[in-house]
Design brief:
The structure is a single chain. By secondary structure, the chain is α+β, with helices and mostly antiparallel strands. It folds into 2 domains: about 140 residues, no CATH class; about 100 residues, 2-Layer Sandwich (Alpha-Beta Plaits), CATH 3.30.70. The chain is built from 9 helices and 13 strands. The chain has a 4-stranded mixed sheet, covered by helices on one side. A 4-stranded mixed sheet has the order 4-5-7-8. The chain has a 3-stranded antiparallel sheet with strand order 3-2-6. A hairpin with a 5-residue loop joins strand 10 and strand 11. The longest helix has 16 residues. It is elongated and about 65 Å long. The N terminus is likely disordered.
Length: about 300
Amino acid sequence: MAEHRLTPEGGAGAQEEQPPARRLPGHIQAALAGAGGLTDSAGQPWAGRSLEGENASIHNFEDDDGTADAGYLAAVSALLTADGDEAAVVASLATARVFVPIVAQLAEEAEGVDGLHADKQADMALVTLKAPDGRLAMPVFSSAGALAAWHPDARPVAVYAARAALSAVAEGAELLVVDPGSEVTFVVRRPAVWALAQQKQWIPAYRDAELAALLRSAAKTRPAVRGLEVLPGAGVAAATASGVRIDGGGPGPELRVVLYLEDGLDAAAVQSLVAGLQNDWSRNVLFGERVDSIEVKLRRAAE
């Protein structure tokens, strides 16, 4: 039977369309509201602080040598040898320092000598990318060297990956792309980005027991569905620059749902059934937060 690819807020074939704007959960909005302002990321007020003596340190990375975080490298190495998984890579990012590329962006331009244009004012801007499906992605780098190789003119700003994830949400980016252009490029999808931003553990959708129960509960209301199976989607896997396949770090779809249907359904009935399930799933908050993209594969119950 046919294979349908869906997104959490679309119908059959919706992966070809620009996904609609997604409203941020309240806890993400609260995290954004609490970033910066009169307090630091730990909620401690800036007022009254001294920058003299031992208090002169203005960030956590003054002695950073620019090399990649050992925990992240170990998690990626395990992924390459099939001894680890993408959940472990995301977990390693929870405590890892990464580099965010910042580039100069001309804000105003003035006319110089002999009619030549001269910079009048320049701002520093975060770099964002556009993913193949049209969504914004923020590149981050495990090392200063990887960033320099990708964009020699970009300024590397050291931050914890959780802070980078929060910045990605603020910029409207749904993906973090770790080390683009390197041997191993790892894509952190939206639910994992949100988990990093909240400093919570991320469970892949295809291993999420609570999510699987939700999907099956909705399917049980339709007698034509005789069974449902949850598997990793085709988009979980990625490939290194040298062509080695790895089971993680792909951009999605990360969730495959196999529906086992009774025989004898015509195309219209199948389409109506899939659309109805998609509508039920997409209205659920848990589904919207934990699923980045989904593909539905149809099978006859007798198979």
